[in-house]
Amino acid sequence: MDDLTQADAASLYGFSSSWASKWFNRLERLADEPFESFVYDEPREERPSELSDEEYDQFVEALHDSPEEAGLDAPAWSVPLARHYLLEEFDVEYCERHVRRLMSEAGLSWKTARPEFYKSDERAQEAWQEGFKKKRNDLDDEYTILTIDQTRQVLSTLIYAWFPEGERPSLPVTGAWENIKLLGAVSDGGETFFLPCAENFNSDTTIRLLDALQTEFGEQICVVLDNASYFTANAVQESVEDTLIELCYLPRGSAPVNPAEECWRQLDQELGNRLFETLDDLRGAALSALDRIEVPDVFTYLCL
């Protein structure tokens, strides 16, 4: 099979590209030797050939915890990471194929991870809701209540890694991939307002959003928003000082209290099983989907 490439060999035998590269180099280096003399790994001196029963149990236990618990700087297990752990912890070296088999036997499987958000504080949310009811009663009847939020829709492959079977894995959100950025608002009158952003969220985009909301809903607006740094920035606070804009900040981790989050949930539901080749395709599909969402009732969320 002289024409077989490294990538083809790796795919054919189910190994990594690095495995194929190592063997191709070995074959080239020892091309004049009898084939049978170098197709096997040489014995490893002073290194155990396999895990003991006790070490295997320890390995399985480690796999069911985060790699960080084992002192590794990674959010989830991969085959190379598990292989590295075996070598460092037990001085046992297995090929990636065998490590993959061990991970499957340990009850892990290859699956996608969903983003992990901050845990909510229900007591803080309830206290905020009580305070908001009082603030709402003190506002002029001409005020429009608006809740705003932000989202990123990512154009990328899903995150795959090895996780215990039967679990719904999650990993921290990252902004490393190509994405479209949206700011959105829901009014107490059942209206919505969505604003695509070309740049990353910052205090300037927040100020422009507040200005756009006044143009859309009138000067007297009470805006409910989270504690993102671009919402709480000093520049934002100063921009509303001499206006009729009231800002009400939700407690940290209060996504369930913000009705704008329901818009993003419906958007994710519509786009979740679709693939897009370009950001323009994704942007067009997202804005079209947002025109069709069922608008949540603001006070169902803010005044439970």
Automatic annotation (TrEMBL):
Residues 156-283 form the Tc1-like transposase DDE domain. It comes from the Archaea. It holds the Pfam family HTH_33. This is Mobile element protein. InterPro entries: Homeodomain-like_sf, RNaseH_sf, Tc1-like_DDE_dom, Transpos_IS630-like, Winged_HTH_dom. Residues 75-130 form the Winged helix-turn helix domain. Gene3D superfamilies: Ribonuclease H-like superfamily/Ribonuclease H (3.30.420.10). GO terms for molecular function: nucleic acid binding.
